[in-house]
C-alpha cells in the first residue's frame, strides 16, 4: 500500500505525465523568426527610405552579405535546437533578416525545459493548455537564443473585369492622358502574392507589336520558375516573372498533386482573377456558356505582371507568403498586391508589429506601394484585417451593374432572384410544371430522409424522374447549405441527370434569408434568397397543387418559367459598401482596443467583378471549365487599387507610395451617383445605412482626380517608426525587436502621423495635431481651409488659408476640443479648397471621451 504522501506524489506524476504526453502528441508547428542585424536591402550605412519614388534596385545587393545571413540562420538553429527536432524552410534576407522553421514535436520538450531553467528572459511558464504547450515551449526556446528579436507562430493565410474601368472613368480619364489603354501602365511591374496565374489566358497574352519591354525594366530582376502546367514560355513579356513558394504548405499538409501544382500555375482561379483585374490586357472578350458578357480590361492593361504563388488549394501559410513578399521586393516590383491575409489577428503582439505587417513595412521602406484586402468579415465593427498605415487597405463596393433574374408564375406574378443562366425553353412564353422537390421524393426509396435528399436536390436517386422530368423543380435552402455540405453544383448535376427544365433554390423560413451571388449555370436556374419571395412562390404552389388525405400530391397544376438572367441592368444609387466588406475602427491588439489609424483606407469596386479564371477551379466546382469568373470580395477591390496605383506611378514617376496613397485618398468621393452620402449594406438583405469612414475609408476611388490632387501628405519609413514609438503603453523593446530601430524619434501621439486622415480613439479635453502638405502641381495655389467638426468637438485649423508654391510644403495645425463626451466615434472632415479648383478632403474620426 502507498502512503498518502506517496499517493500524492504519484498523482502529481500522472498529471505531469499526461501534460507532457499531450505536448509530445501535438502536431507540428511553423514559426516565423526575425533576427538582429541588417538585411541585404538595408545595410546600416545607407539611406533607409526611397523618397524620390525609386524602388529598390535588385542589382545593387550584396551576395556575400546574403550568404552570411543564411549561414547565421543555420548556425543559430544548430546551436539552439537539437538535431532532428526542426527543419528550416526559408531564410528571409532581402528586406528582413529572419527565417521560417518547422518544429518536430519529439525532442522539443526536453530542449524547451532546458530553456525554461536557464533563460532569464523567459516569462511564460509551462503552458498546460494541450493545444499550445509544444508551440509555446519551442517558441520560448527560440526567443531566448542570442540574436533573435521576434518569434511568431504562423497563423495561416487565406484568400480574401468587364465594366469597372468604365465605372471608374478610366477610358475618358487616366487612359486618355496616357495615350489610351495600350499605354496605360507602361513600364510598371505589379507583383501578386496569391494562388498563381493561368498563363494561357488571353488576358495575359503577349502582343509583339506593343513592345512589352522598356528600358525602365532593366532594373527588374525576376525569374521564371517552371513546373507542372507552367513551361518556360509562360513568361511571355506580359508575365515578366513567376515564382512559387511551397515549403510552408508542404511542411504542414499533404499536398494533392492533382491540384497543388508545384509551379506558378493557378489551379484555384483567384490569382488569375486578381492579376487580370489589375493588369489584364484590354479588350478581351468574356464568353461564358456561349454568352457574351462584354470586353474585359485591367485597370493598367499595359503594366507587366510578376507572380509569387504562395497559396495552394489545400492550404496557405504565412511562412510562404512572407517569403514571397521578401522575394518580390528583392526582384524590384513597383506595386505589391495582397488579396490574401492572415487567418486571425496576432495573439500576443500589437497588430502593427506582427511579422506580416512588418514585412509590408519593409516593402514600403524599399519604395513599393503595398495594397491589401481589408477583409471579408463585414459588416461587424472592427473586422478589418488591414491594420497598418504603411499599407493601403481596400474596402469593397458595388457598381451600378447587376444581373437580375426572375421567375414567372402561372398566375402572372413575377418573383425576382439571381442567376446567370439562360431562360427556360421558350424564353418565358412557355410555362412548365412546377414541382416542389419534397413532393417528388421516391416514396419507397432506401436513402436517408435528410434535407440533402428530400428537399435540397443533392441526390438524383432520391427523386422520381417521372415527376421531375421537363419540370421546374423547387429546391429548398436547408441545413446542408447552412453548414456547407450541400452545393449548387450538386443541384445542377441532379437537374442534368433527371432532365429538369430548370431549378429554383428558395429561402427557408426556418433559416431566414441567404446571400445569393450570380453564378453561371449551364442549365436554366434561379436563386430566390428572401423568405418573403419564397413565400409568394409557396402560396401559389399550394393553391395549384392537389393532395390526398395523407398530404401526397395527386395532381400538379402550378406552372412557371425562368426568364433570361444574363442581361446586365444598371441602377442609379451607387456605390454601396458591400455587406461582406470588413469595417473599422482599426484596432491595436487582440482585445480590439481602437487604434489612431483610419481603416479601411479606400473604397473600390469589389462586388460582381468579371475577370480571368482557371478552368481547373479547384475550390469552386461550379466554375470548373470556365475561363472567366464573376466574383465578389475585398480580394476583388484590392487589384483595382493596385492597377490605379500603377497608372499614377507611370504618370508621376517621382511619387513615393505614400504620395500615391494620399492622392487616392484626398480625391476620393464619399457621395453616390445621386449626390447622397454613400450607403453601406447591413447584415440583412436589402438593409442600408449611412456609411462612415469606418465603412469606406476616404471614399470611392476616383482615378482621374487622383492624377492631379493638388496637395499630398507624405510619410516615410522614419515617420512610421516614430508612429510605432508613439503608441500608448508600447514597449520600445518590442519595436526594436520588430524593426531593428531604437525609439529615438516619437511623434508625440500616433495621430500625428502625416497621413490624409485624422483618427483619435480617445480624445480627452483637447489635443493639437499636425499635418504637412506638399504642392505637387506646376503652379502656386491658394487654399481656403474649412472644417465640419465631429459631434462633441470644436475644431480649429491654423492657418485658415495659405498660398503654396510648386514643390513647397505647408504645416497645418488642427486643434481638437471636447465639448461633450458622447462615448462613441463621431465623424467630420477638413476641406482644403484651392483657387485652381483642387479640393483636398481629410476625414476625421474622433471619440470624445471627456471635456477635461
TrEMBL record:
A Pfam family: fn3_6
Tell me where in or outside the cell this protein is found: Secreted
Domain (Peptidase S8/S53) spans 185-672
Kindly report the protein's main subcellular placement as a broad class: secreted
**Active-site feature positions:** 194 (charge relay system), 270 (charge relay system), 635 (charge relay system)
Which keywords has UniProt assigned to this entry? Answer: Glycoprotein, Hydrolase, Protease, Secreted, Serine protease, Signal
Which positions carry the signal peptide feature in this UniProt record? Answer: 1-25
Classification via InterPro entries: Peptidase_S8/S53_dom (IPR000209), Peptidase_S8/S53_dom_sf (IPR036852), Peptidase_S8_Asp-AS (IPR023827), Peptidase_S8_His-AS (IPR022398), Peptidase_S8_Ser-AS (IPR023828), Peptidase_S8_subtilisin-rel (IPR015500), Peptidases_S8_3 (IPR034197), S8pro/Inhibitor_I9 (IPR010259)
Which family, according to the similarity comment?
Belongs to the peptidase S8 family.
Q: What is this protein called?
A: Subtilisin-like protease SBT2.4
What is the protein's species of origin?
Answer: Ziziphus jujuba (Chinese jujube)
Q: Which gene encodes it?
A: LOC107419196
Amino acid at each position: 500500500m502507498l502512503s498518502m504522501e506517496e499517493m500524492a506524489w504519484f498523482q502529481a506524476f500522472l498529471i505531469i505525465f499526461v501534460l507532457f504526453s499531450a505536448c509530445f502528441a501535438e502536431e507540428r508547428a511553423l514559426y516565423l523568426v526575425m533576427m538582429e542585424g541588417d538585411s541585404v536591402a538595408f545595410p546600416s550605412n545607407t539611406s533607409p527610405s526611397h523618397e524620390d519614388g525609386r524602388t529598390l534596385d535588385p542589382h545593387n545587393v550584396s551576395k556575400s552579405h546574403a550568404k552570411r545571413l543564411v549561414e547565421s540562420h543555420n548556425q543559430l538553429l544548430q546551436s539552439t535546437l537539437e538535431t532532428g527536432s526542426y527543419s528550416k524552410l526559408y531564410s528571409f534576407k532581402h528586406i528582413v533578416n529572419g527565417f521560417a522553421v518547422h518544429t518536430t514535436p519529439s525532442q522539443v520538450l526536453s530542449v524547451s525545459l532546458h530553456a525554461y531553467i536557464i533563460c532569464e528572459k523567459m516569462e511564460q511558464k509551462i503552458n498546460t493548455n494541450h493545444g499550445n504547450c509544444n508551440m509555446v515551449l519551442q517558441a520560448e526556446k527560440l526567443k531566448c537564443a542570442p540574436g533573435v528579436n521576434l518569434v511568431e507562430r504562423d497563423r495561416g493565410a487565406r484568400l480574401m473585369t468587364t465594366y469597372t474601368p468604365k465605372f471608374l472613368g478610366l477610358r475618358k480619364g487616366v487612359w486618355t492622358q496616357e495615350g489610351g489603354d495600350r499605354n496605360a501602365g507602361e513600364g510598371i511591374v505589379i507583383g501578386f502574392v496569391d494562388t498563381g496565374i493561368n498563363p494561357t489566358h488571353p488576358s495575359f497574352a503577349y502582343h509583339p507589336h506593343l513592345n512589352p519591354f522598356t528600358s525602365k525594366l532593366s532594373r527588374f530582376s525576376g525569374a521564371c520558375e517552371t513546373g507542372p502546367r507552367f513551361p518556360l514560355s509562360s513568361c511571355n513579356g506580359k508575365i515578366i516573372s513567376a515564382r512559387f513558394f511551397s515549403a510552408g504548405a508542404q511542411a504542414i499538409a499533404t499536398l494533392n498533386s492533382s491540384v497543388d501544382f508545384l509551379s506558378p500555375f493557378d489551379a484555384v482561379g483567384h490569382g488569375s482573377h486578381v492579376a487580370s483585374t489589375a493588369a489584364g490586357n484590354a479588350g478581351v472578350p468574356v464568353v461564358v456558356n456561349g454568352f457574351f458578357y462584354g470586353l474585359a480590361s485591367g485597370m493598367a492593361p499595359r503594366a507587366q505582371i510578376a507572380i509569387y504563388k504562395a497559396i495552394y488549394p489545400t492550404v496557405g501559410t504565412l511562412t510562404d507568403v512572407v517569403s514571397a513578399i521578401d522575394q518580390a521586393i528583392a526582384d524590384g516590383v513597383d506595386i505589391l498586391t495582397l488579396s490574401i491575409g492572415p487567418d486571425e489577428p496576432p495573439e500576443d503582439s500589437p497588430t502593427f508589429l506582427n511579422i506580416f505587417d512588418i514585412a509590408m513595412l519593409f516593402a514600403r521602406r524599399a519604395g513599393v506601394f503595398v495594397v491589401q484586402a481589408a477583409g471579408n468579415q463585414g459588416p461587424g465593427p472592427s473586422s478589418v484585417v488591414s491594420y497598418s498605415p504603411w499599407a493601403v487597405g481596400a474596402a469593397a463596393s458595388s457598381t451600378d451593374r447587376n444581373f437580375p433574374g426572375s421567375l414567372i408564375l402561372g398566375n402572372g406574378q413575377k418573383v425576382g432572384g439571381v442567376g446567370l443562366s439562360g431562360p427556360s425553353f421558350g424564353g418565358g412564353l412557355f410555362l412548365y410544371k412546377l414541382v416542389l422537390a419534397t413532393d417528388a421524393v421516391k416514396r419507397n426509396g432506401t436513402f436517408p430522409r435528410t434535407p440533402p435528399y428530400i428537399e435540397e436536390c443533392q441526390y438524383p436517386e432520391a427523386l422520381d424522374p417521372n415527376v421531375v422530368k421537363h419540370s421546374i423543380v423547387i429546391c429548398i435552402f436547408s441545413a446542408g447549405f447552412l453548414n456547407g455540405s450541400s452545393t449548387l453544383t450538386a443541384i445542377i448535376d441532379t437537374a442534368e441527370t433527371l432532365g429538369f427544365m430548370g431549378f429554383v433554390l428558395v429561402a427557408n423560413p426556418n433559416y431566414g434569408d441567404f446571400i445569393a451571388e450570380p453564378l453561371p449555370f449551364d442549365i436554366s436556374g434561379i436563386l430566390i434568397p428572401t423568405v418573403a419571395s419564397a413565400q409568394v412562390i409557396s402560396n401559389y404552389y399550394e393553391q395549384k397543387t392537389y393532395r390526398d388525405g395523407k398530404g401526397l400530391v395527386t395532381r400538379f397544376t402550378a406552372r412557371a418559367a425562368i426568364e433570361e438572367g444574363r442581361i446586365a441592368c444598371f441602377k442609379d444609387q451607387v456605390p454601396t459598401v458591400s455587406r461582406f466588406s470588413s469595417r473599422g475602427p482599426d484596432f491595436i491588439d487582440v482585445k480590439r482596443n481602437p487604434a489612431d489609424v483610419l481603416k479601411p483606407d479606400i473604397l473600390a469596386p469589389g462586388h460582381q467583378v468579371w475577370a480571368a479564371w482557371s478552368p481547373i477551379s479547384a475550390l469552386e466546382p461550379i466554375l470548373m471549365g470556365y475561363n472567366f469568373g464573376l466574383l465578389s470580395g475585398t480580394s476583388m477591390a484590392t487589384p483595382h487599387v493596385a492597377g490605379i496605383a500603377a497608372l499614377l506611378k507611370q504618370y508621376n514617376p517621382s511619387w513615393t507610395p505614400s504620395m500615391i496613397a494620399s492622392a487616392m485618398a484626398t480625391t476620393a468621393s464619399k457621395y453616390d451617383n445621386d449626390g447622397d452620402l454613400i450607403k453601406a449594406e447591413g447584415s440583412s438583405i436589402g438593409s442600408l445605412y449611412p456609411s462612415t469612414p469606418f465603412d469606406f475609408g476616404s471614399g470611392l476611388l476616383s482615378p482621374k482626380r487622383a492624377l492631379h490632387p493638388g496637395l499630398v501628405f507624405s510619410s516615410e519609413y522614419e515617420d512610421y517608426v516614430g508612429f510605432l514609438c508613439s503608441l500608448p503603453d508600447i514597449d520600445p523593446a518590442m519595436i526594436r525587436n520588430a524593426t531593428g530601430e531604437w525609439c529615438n524619434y516619437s511623434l508625440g501621439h500616433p495621430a500625428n502621423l502625416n497621413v490624409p486622415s485624422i483618427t483619435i480613439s480617445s480624445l480627452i479635453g483637447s489635443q493639437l495635431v499636425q499635418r504637412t502638405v506638399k504642392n505637387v502641381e506646376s503652379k502656386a495655389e491658394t487654399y481656403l481651409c474649412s472644417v465640419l467638426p465631429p459631434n462633441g468637438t470644436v475644431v480649429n485649423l491654423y492657418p485658415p488659408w495659405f498660398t503654396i508654391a510648386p514643390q513647397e510644403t505647408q504645416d497645418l495645425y488642427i486643434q481638437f476640443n471636447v465639448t461633450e463626451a458622447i462615448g462613441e466615434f463621431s465623424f467630420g472632415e477638413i476641406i482644403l479648397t484651392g483657387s485652381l479648383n483642387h479640393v483636398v478632403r481629410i476625414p476625421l474620426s474622433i471619440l470624445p471621451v471627456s471635456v477635461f
